[in-house]
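agent> Task received from the user: take the single chain below, predict its 3D structure, and emit structure tokens. No templates, no multimer pairing.
agent> Plan: (1) validate residues, (2) run structure prediction, (3) serialize to tokens, (4) report one or two observations.
agent> Step 1 OK, no nonstandard residues flagged.
tool_call: predict_structure(input=
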Amino acid sequence: MKIVNLLPEIGKEAMQQEILQGLKSTPKYIPSKYFYDKKGSEIFEEITSLEEYYPTRTEKEIISTLWDKLQLDGQELHIIELGSGDASKIELLFSQIPPDKQKNIHYYPVDISESAVKTAAAKLAKLFPDLTITGIVADFIHQLALLPQSGKRCFCFLGSTIGNLEAHEVSSFLDGVSNTMQHGDHLLLGLDRIKDIQVLENAYNDKKGVTARFNKNILHVTNDLLEATFDPDAFSHLAFFNKEKQRIEMHLKAEKDMDIHLGFNGQKIRLTKEETIHTENSHKFDTRQIEKIAAGNGMRIKQHFTDTKGWFSLVHFRR
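)
tool_result: status=success, residues=319
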């Protein structure tokens, strides 16, 4: 097992300016990547086990019987998981592979979080000693060209993480993946499907308030980076399905008028009561959109897997 860090050094000043730009926009926003400090990552893992949060559960249902259906047996298979996180889903996949075939697989967990890559790689190395594992710390959205280029490859982008991107970003990203793929390469893509609105909204408004804690944690991160005076308790969690844009939106709504002081530059941000800060989108997909993704990016759909309720899709593309 080894770890390779390809992530360019991003200075604190660049992060401050990125968040500041969002807070000065109309409407205000904070980029969702700032959810994932150590605390945010821990809270998100808590979210994945909630009764209301179906995406992780349904995707794991699909993956639990997937390996033989993929028909990926062969020599020197490189499995590259983008946004690998805790790698619990790929662990389910590897558990289905006989040890004599695991020795032919080189697994690359790719994530922007170095701690996540190290933890996942160490865990999988212990569980599957026959695997070859190289962890890669990278921004896979912008550093696809730096990922392994040789051998037969299967890219995995699970968890419907692609739903966090805007429509033009989805197209651009998949163009990049397609251009990186060589003839015969595979892509396994997780996509959350459009379904009953109540089911969707419940998944982001759990009864225990865990998602609300996750949403508000982005203000703690902002306070640390901008030396700001946000009081998370002065905001309420707001998550709803935007039917026109076919996405769940998460916002933080101000419960009162307030001035937020920024210690790093001496400025202040004014918020009025009920004004919102947009923190995340989670787009949902239907069959037409999935077929459009394949047609527009030079790939063909080899297989389409779903759970028993048809709530989630794992689509197997081939270049």
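agent> Step 4: summary for the user.
The first strand starts at residue 2 and ends at 5.
agent> Done.
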